[in-house]
Design brief:
The protein is an all-alpha fold. The protein is about 70% helix and about 0% strand. α1 crosses α5 and α4 packs across α8.
C-alpha cells in the first residue's frame, strides 16, 4: 500500500469515521482524536486485512475499538457531551448524507444509551453497516447484535426526548384519520 492508497482511505472514510466516533463519544475533539489514532493504527496494521475481507467494516472496527479505549481510559472522569458544540459542524458540505441535521433530541437520546447499545445503533443507522458487519466490528455473534439493536430501539422508542417529537406527529395522524 502506498501514499495514494492512504489518500483514498482518508477521502473515502474520514468524514464517516469522524461522524461515527462523534456519535459514540459525544464531542468533536475526542472524535477527531480517536479517528486520527484509528487511521494511524489502521495504516500500521494494513497488511492484516485479508484480501477477501471488506475494508470498511475492518476500518470501523479500528475506529470503534479506539473509541471504546477512550471511553474506558481517557474520558471516564469528565462529561463526554459538550452541549455548546454545533452538532452539524463536523459534517462536510460535500457529503450529502452528512448534511442531514442531527437534532438535539436524537443526540440526547443516543447519549443516554449505554455505550454497547449506542455503538450498534450508530453502526447500523449512521454507518449503514448490516448486522453481520456490525458483528465483525464489535467482535460479537450476529445474535448479540440483533438483541442489542432490539434493546436500543426499545429504549429509544420510550426516551422522553424522542417522545416530545413523536407525540405531536402521532396526534396529527390520529386527527387526520
Amino acid at each position: 500500500m502506498d501514499v495514494d492508497e492512504l489518500r483514498t482511505w482518508l477521502d473515502e472514510g474520514y468524514a464517516s469515521s469522524v461522524r461515527t466516533a462523534y456519535l459514540i463519544l459525544g464531542n468533536r475533539p475526542d472524535a477527531e482524536d480517536a479517528v486520527q489514532e484509528a487511521f494511524l493504527r489502521a495504516w500500521k496494521f494494513r497488511d492484516s486485512v485479508a484480501e477477501h475481507s471488506r475494508f470498511q467494516p475492518w476500518l470501523y472496527r479500528v475506529v470503534v475499538n479506539t473509541c471504546n479505549s477512550k471511553l474506558r481510559k481517557e474520558i471516564p472522569h469528565r462529561d463526554r457531551r459538550a452541549p455548546e458544540l454545533d452538532h452539524s459542524s463536523h459534517y462536510h458540505v460535500d457529503d450529502p448524507i452528512s448534511r442531514i441535521a442531527v437534532t438535539q433530541d436524537v443526540m440526547r437520546a443516543l447519549g443516554d444509551l449505554p455505550a454497547h447499545l449506542r455503538i450498534v445503533i450508530v453502526l447500523r443507522y449512521y454507518a449503514d453497516l448490516n448486522e453481520l458487519d456490525i458483528a465483525h466490528v464489535i467482535s460479537r455473534q450476529p445474535g448479540t447484535v440483533k438483541s442489542r439493536l432490539s434493546e436500543a430501539r426499545r429504549r429509544l422508542a420510550v426516551h422522553p426526548a424522542l417522545q416530545s417529537e413523536a407525540a405531536p406527529s402521532a396526534q396529527a395522524h390520529k386527527e387526520q384519520s
